């Protein structure tokens, strides 16, 4: 069957240009530099929550392990295999698995592709103003501002442009 050309408000999520990399300070970027994130919620004009189609190549992580102070996050694995890392340890998620991370629950989470194949998942999170996140394994916090993410050390001192 031939694919039909879609027009907004519908779209093929694979048609959205993905962004690679991370806004993290340089010293924390390496693990997720190859992450590809297509911001399909933005393309659809969604403002109350974000939706990203994220591809993790082998050896790539979604992020540093973190938890959000006032934003919920949900993921749905579409293809491949991901390792979910939380305070409880590691578990493998395969296609069809979902996971949810409630706002304010101090249990850092991270997805890592430890397989030999790409993994693809849908990530949904609300856009509550003034949100931030804590990174329990490293000396970092983030606060979302009107100018974008502001990364600091846990004592509040900012990371420099070359750090």
Features:
single chain, Jelly Rolls, 6-stranded antiparallel beta sheet, 4-stranded antiparallel beta sheet, 2 helices
Can you describe this structure?
It is a single chain. By secondary structure, the chain is mostly beta strands. It has a single domain (21-152), classed as Jelly Rolls (Sandwich), CATH 2.60.120. Helix content is 5%, strand content 39%. The protein is built from two helices and 13 strands. It has helices at residues 26-29, 40-43, and strands at residues 19-20, 36-38, 49-56, 67-68, 73-79, 81-86, 89-94, 98-101, 110-112, 119-126, 132-135, 140-145, 148-152. The strands form three sheets. It has a six-stranded antiparallel sheet with strand order 1-2-3-10-5-8. A hairpin with a 2-residue loop joins strand 12 and strand 13. It is globular, with a radius of gyration of 16 Å.
Q: Count the helices. How many?
A: 2
CATH topology: Jelly Rolls
Order of strands across the biggest sheet? 1-2-3-10-5-8
CATH class: Mainly Beta
């Amino acid at each position: 069957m031939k694919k039909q050309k879609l027009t907004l408000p519908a779209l093929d999520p694979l048609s959205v240009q993905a962004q690679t990399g991370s806004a993290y300070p340089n010293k924390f970027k390496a693990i997720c530099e190859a992450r590809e994130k297509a911001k399909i919620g933005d393309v659809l004009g969604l403002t109350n929550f974000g939706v990203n189609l994220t591809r993790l190549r082998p050896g790539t992580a979604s992020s540093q392990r973190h938890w959000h102070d006032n934003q919920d996050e949900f993921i749905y694995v579409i293809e491949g295999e991901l390792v979910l890392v939380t305070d409880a340890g590691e578990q493998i998620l395969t296609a069809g698995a979902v996971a949810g991370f409630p706002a304010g629950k101090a249990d850092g989470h991270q997805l890592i592709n430890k397989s030999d194949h790409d993994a693809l998942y849908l990530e949904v999170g609300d856009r509550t103003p003034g949100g931030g996140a804590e990174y329990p394994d490293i000396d970092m916090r983030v606060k979302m501002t009107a100018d974008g993410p502001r990364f600091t050390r846990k004592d509040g001192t900012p990371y420099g442009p070359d750090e």
